[in-house]
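Re: the multi-chain job from yesterday

Posting the exact lines I submitted so nobody has to dig through the queue logs.
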Amino acid sequence: MYDMKALYEAESVAHAIQLRLEHPEAQIIAGGSDVLVQMREGKRAGKELISIYMLDELRGVSLDEEENIRIGSLTSFSHITRDPIIQKYINVLGEAVDMVGGPQVRNIGTIGGNTCNGVTSADSASTLHAWEAIIELTGAEGTRRVPIKDFYLRAGKVDIRPDEIQTAILIPKASYDRTAGYYFKYAMRNAMDIATTGCSVNCRLSSDGKTFERVRIAYGVAGPVPMRAPSAEAAATGKPVSAETVEQFSLAVLNDINPRDSWRASKALRQHIAVELARRCLLESVKRCGGEIHEAV
Amino acid sequence: MPNVGKSVTRVDAFDKVTGRAQYTDDRCPNSALVARVVHSTIAHGYVKSVDTSEAEKIPGVVRIFTCFDVPDIKFPTAGHPWSVEEAHQDVADRRMLNRHVRYYGDDIAAVVAEDEVAAAQAARAIKVEYDPLPFVLDPIEATKEGAPLLHKEYPNNILKHTSIRQGDYAAAIQEPGLICVDKWYETPTVQHCHIENFICYAYEENGRIVVISSTQIPHIVRRTVGQALGIPWGKVRIVKPYIGGGFGNKQDTLYEPLCAWLSMQVGGRTVKLDVPREDTFVSNRVRHAEKIHIISWVRPDGTYAARKLVMYSNQGAYASHGHSIVAKGMGAFPQMYPCPNVECDSYTVYTNRSVAGAMRGYGIPQAMFAFESHTEDVCRRLGCDSLAFRRKNLMPVGFVDPFSKNENYYDSYNQCLDKAIAYMDYERKRAEYANQTGPVRKGIGLAPFWYNTAVWPISLEHSSCRMVLNQDGSIQLQVGETEIGQGADTAYAQMAADTVGLADYTSVHVQSCQDTDITPFGLGAYASRQTYTCGFAIRQTGLLLKEKILAYASEMTRMPVYNLDLVDSNIVRVTDGRVMMPLADLAVESFYSLTHSVHITAESTYQIKSNAYSFGCCCAEVEVDIPLAKVKLTKIINVHDCGTLINPALAEAQVHGGMSMGIGFALSEQLLYDGKTGRALNNNLLDYKLSTFMDHPHLEAQFVENPEPTSAFGTKALGEPPTCPVAPAIRNAILNATGVEVDTLPMTPHTLYRRFCEEGLIQDPWRKEG
Amino acid sequence: MKQFKQVTFRLNGKEVSCVVDVRSSLTDMLRNQFGLTSVKKGCEVGECGACTVLINKEAFNSCIYLAVWAEGKDILTLEGLMGPNGELSDIQQAFMEEAAVQCGFCTPGFILTAYEILEEPRDYTDDELRKLLSGHLCRCTGYENILRAVKKVLRQRLEAAKA
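And the result, structure tokens for all chains:
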């Protein structure tokens, strides 16, 4: 049994917003795989919870009129992975969330919960950053949209106002069009693990496949929140598709990232892995874009 | 038809695949009160005061007890047989709740509440004031002058120091032309991680205390509960239902005394003590972390002139199994590679860490990592082939250990190595992988291991058995040796069926749930000894039962006993093979005869005064991604000579599990402690990296079956051995792939990154030395 | 003040209803109110998989699933696999035959995840099966015979589908 003070169950988004206003101290619970664990640990013990888990209207993936991808916030990881729209346009997101925990956790874990807890190690976060996702929040005054980089305020803290819940995550067409990417989760085990470092890279090549039109890269666990690596992106965007560019790109990430020393991994190891993952992810992204790189032997 | 040697289905399989098998929590009534232990939040010091006033106010809290309330009795916890000689008794160094706290996680208070939420709330609301003392986590540091002292009876924190001296080491190393290989090896603290946490519940009945416990050793726990509470042992009854794994952690008295005492304080009401996973890691038992120093003096021809071994074993805060673990590892040293001049010293040292106890392998996995890594390192220095070196130097056939009188009857080492290298294509790959370049490299390595079955002559070995004939010609079998998942009950049924002369093992109903009020005295599951030791008692008792059955058959048939036999559940006249009657007919007659009614039963104890070697090896192949500092285990085999296989399928399954635990020990598992506070950092199943389904390749298990001459059924140890050789085999494979000697377990990316940087395989300008 | 709620759902094929303390996990409710002791507690934080049940045909860790969320769902525990005359399902049978059971504590959860996988049999590779089963920890078997048991039934089902 969980040590909760009270449970309020939302019956609709509007009801959820009302409950938020009525119970300002209450914690939102989506799938619960983080909140309930923390409650058991004693961190959130004795708190009130607002459950939005039963709001099926927040589940599912669709394309809007402008062909932006819209992912309902309560869509579970396993449903994202299996979704045909995701598979067609942003398969890497499906692959990334398919590396969360194990199958049961991927059935309960939601993409909304994964972003709202503000954790740097979330497997969805680096890909959502690298693909410049937009967060949709719904509150008493209606909805607002926030670029994901602004949504994360600091470790464990995201931009949700007291009357809001997150209702969707959008991937703009401009972001996924002619773009392919790769996510590398570096962890100590092959399942049931959190990322020591996670790296998501995507690129768009010129029509002849010789130039990087756009390269984007984001990390989890390279700093307190998921982050892009702008120096690395600049080092590759507009440059020839070559082993040399890939090398410069991967070393440039060291200008951007700021991993810390902890018992989970040393800063030096995290830096080392960040460089290596950047290299491997870009090489794979090029391949997925139909490009070719002859690696220097 | 013989039952022994067949891969029959486990006797408990049906109940386990239907969810019907009852474990401790499944038997506990919902109305039970819930106990929660409050743990120390400092690594060393004294509890000055415990303020329970806020906690008492929480609705649902029944009573709170602190270290100031418990009886002032120190008791031993190790799952060893008691000794009637005081000098050989286990160390009694802890109370149920402790004022002098000796590790972060020590037990200082207990809440009894109506439900788990109230218990958890109360546990958080208790305020403890401490007088903190300096603490020490490292066993070598702990032996130094001025180190914090954990137990005043043990100066320099040395729980025990033992030695082996053979020949003249000092003189032998003077021989000219010797090559000296001098190295340290280190193994981590790891935990058993049985999926069922330790759990027990207790209540009073007829003025006695009953404890239902997830334990490997019910009869031993009965004694320790009596000792801890200061009550007559006959006042204690322990019941062991199915248990969700033990691996040695439950070969110890854990919270049974406290739970029993709590129940007695609340009027004998049922109190359940269900240990959370986080506490299982910290406040149960762990494997001893060891630091091992080996100096070998070897001749260029590949023979040892002299060897020296020093081992430091990190005991943690309380003695538990104590020195017996490192002593077992040390004992293997002069036996495995006999050498005329040997000096060994082992120290078991108290530190302010979680208490180390028994764990699958009992000191041998640590020893084998050091010994077999060292063998490889010696061969590297000599420039010789390590397989040939092992074949030349490993314990020869005919070797007899003067202390245990164990004899090496067969060439098991070479036979096992032969099978392993054939399966792995070892020699070809070894040559192929010799000089690789590039970021991803392959390697192959192997390691034999030493192990022995049972504990004689170090401590008592005996087993008792009771057999009862039923009306239908089936029998009940009761023994004190426990089923803990390994398949013991099935092996017992197979052995009993063959001994008595029953057609099928399903006619043997093994009483799986030991109850100290009912089950004959036996010591329980440990030392990979149950099939060996219990085999004697089953055979002896089975023959007794058969004798009684045949005597009764003689009455019924008017044939002399010597002309009768019991075969396939029939009474048979041996002179012409005629079936005189089914055993079932005899059984019914014996129960209900108006002229001679008797309940045919047999019971006997066999004291075992022998012990058997159990040898084998592991061979592993890896792929090392140097830039990622990662190892992928691609192929692995264990080969064992555990004598005659009672049930080949279950034996194979046992090996798989042991290999898996060995892989975790090699590559990923380690319980970490914060140097500043002594607190465990990763005491949960997410941060403690137990192997998952995706971290293994296929696990190949093969056997060499040389029947053990001393054994009732030709069998010997298998439960623990599979864990012993895996880590050094993988380590030697990594060495083969990269040329880097990794001497610290686990070989995680953290360890490999450090080593690859030190050896120049990775060059990162931002990495500081050290 | 304690808060209770009436929950109605399908459990092992039968419509059930009960009043539950809202603080209960699904594990608590299934064990304590329905006596379904195959639902095991190994970590209570979704890391070991011992408490796995199927909810609307997907595997969930019932320890981190609120009991009130069961409302309207179709829930299957290991007890629900047995046929009306006590027949075992093919996957239970395979666990017995392949010695995939040792201490038995992870077994109920594993069988349920396997059941989910086998409901839509595909020609999975070993690596794919390992991934599908990776939400369960086992300390006894090294996972080897569990894989064997699942593969055996998968082959049987694929062959039956062909025939």
